[in-house]
């Protein structure tokens, strides 16, 4: 994006024809117009297209074959963008472009990709991580819980058949049907704090899934690390006596996590996401999103428990990239013994949601997040 500067004299490198009033976001050279920007001073700037692509893919560090396909798709899209641009990027004896350097590199290996980056590219990667701009390079995932079925006063027979298996169910996590009824799990009525504890877990879940752009199942151990650290109910067995405290507790953890880069907008979005889940896809099936969310958490925890990355001592740190950027998640991975206890808690919450969901569903959260 082009940035206008208020005082061109602050920069020593400027347009030679007239006073430069714009600054290139890549090389910081001043220029006055598009023809000026197309001069030889900016021939290396188009390389940033490829650099940004790798920054996002290395940041995600997915571990399955999907990451390779995703990288190729992004590279192809950015290659087309550069082919359609008017900027001359033929710089002769410059470093080969990133697409060429990554030709025979395993795109699932973050350390191998890191080795192919120049010092300037590595620096920009770190800057983007700190600023959060890397998240702008891929399409944002749209949560399934945002869908709300419209009320139809008159519907044909075909639409009536859809009520048996609503179309929205296909876009949601599978609801766990193997959970026993609540009366078989507990002989005593649930404590009033249970519904607020569940709100705390839901807030952590919504924030985690959005933070990972809907790809939490591609890295279950790391996703569970974020989830558990955001929910004090899961990590420390804290209980809550109000919705306000339960939800604000998640916002507090997110805001105070420096590497997560949470903002006021993020925590407001989390509150709205919880309300959408509590509203359900339709009035006649108001608890479905709640049960789908708890089922997805249960499945994620189970996957993390069987993940080879669950044990922090088992994380390999042989490459430079892994050593420098794995500490945020890898050193705080939830150990298997604790995961087992948390899974038991999720079974309890799932069972509770079958008989007591009406206590929290179909209502607005009276929560003001003061962050």
Structure, explained:
By secondary structure, this protein is mainly α. The protein contains 17 helices and three strands. The protein has helices spanning 34-37, 47-60, 65-84, 98-101, 110-116, 119-131, 157-161, 182-185, 193-211, 220-230, 232-235, 243-255, 264-279, 288-305, 320-325, 327-330, 336-356, and strands at 3-4, 22-23, 30-31. A three-stranded antiparallel β-sheet has the order 1-2-3.
Which quaternary structure do these chains form? single chain
Helix coverage percent of residues? 40-55%
Strand order of the largest sheet: 1-2-3
State the shape: elongated
Briefly say what this structure is.
The chain is mainly alpha-helical and 371 residues long. It contains 17 helices and 3 strands. The two termini are 29 Å apart.
How does the SSE layout of this entry go?
Elements: E1 3-4, E2 22-23, E3 30-31, H1 34-37, H2 47-60, H3 65-84, H4 98-101, H5 110-116, H6 119-131, H7 157-161, H8 182-185, H9 193-211, H10 220-230, H11 232-235, H12 243-255, H13 264-279, H14 288-305, H15 320-325, H16 327-330, H17 336-356
Antiparallel strand pairs: 1-2, 2-3
Helix pairs in contact: 2-3, 2-6, 9-10, 9-12, 9-13, 10-14, 12-13, 13-14, 14-17
């Amino acid at each position: 994006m082009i940035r206008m500067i208020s005082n061109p004299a602050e920069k020593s490198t400027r347009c030679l024809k007239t006073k430069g009033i714009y600054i290139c976001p890549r090389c910081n050279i001043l220029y006055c117009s598009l023809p000026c920007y197309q001069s030889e001073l900016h021939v290396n700037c188009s390389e940033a297209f490829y650099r940004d692509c790798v920054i996002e893919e290395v940041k995600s560090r997915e571990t399955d074959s999907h990451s390779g396909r995703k990288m190729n798709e992004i590279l192809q899209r950015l290659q087309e963008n550069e082919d359609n641009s008017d900027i001359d990027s033929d710089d002769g004896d410059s470093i080969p472009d990133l697409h060429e350097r990554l030709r025979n590199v395993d795109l699932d290996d973050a350390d191998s990709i890191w080795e192919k980056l120049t010092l300037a590219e590595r620096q920009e990667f770190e800057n983007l991580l700190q600023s959060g701009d890397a998240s702008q390079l891929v399409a944002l995932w749209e949560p399934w819980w945002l869908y709300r079925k419209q009320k139809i006063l008159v519907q044909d027979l075909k639409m009536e058949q859809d009520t048996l298996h609503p179309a929205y169910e296909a876009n949601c996590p599978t609801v766990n049907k193997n959970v026993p009824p609540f009366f078989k799990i507990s002989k005593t009525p649930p404590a009033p704090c249970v519904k607020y504890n569940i709100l705390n877990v839901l807030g952590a879940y919504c924030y985690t899934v959005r933070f990972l752009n809907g790809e939490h199942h591609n890295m279950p151990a790391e996703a569970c690390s974020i989830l558990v650290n955001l929910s004090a109910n899961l990590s420390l067995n804290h209980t809550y006596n109000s919705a306000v405290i339960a939800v604000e507790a998640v916002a507090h953890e997110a805001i105070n996590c420096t590497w997560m880069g949470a903002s006021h907008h993020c925590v407001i979005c989390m509150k709205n996401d919880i309300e959408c889940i509590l509203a359900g896809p339709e009035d006649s099936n108001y608890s479905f999103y709640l049960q789908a969310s708890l089922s997805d958490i249960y499945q994620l925890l189970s996957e993390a428990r069987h993940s080879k990355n669950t044990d922090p001592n088992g994380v390999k740190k042989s490459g430079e990239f892994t050593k420098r950027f794995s500490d945020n998640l890898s050193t705080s991975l939830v150990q298997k013994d604790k995961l087992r206890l948390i899974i038991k808690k999720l079974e309890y919450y799932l069972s509770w949601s079958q008989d007591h969901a009406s206590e929290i569903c179909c209502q607005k959260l009276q929560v003001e997040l003061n962050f």
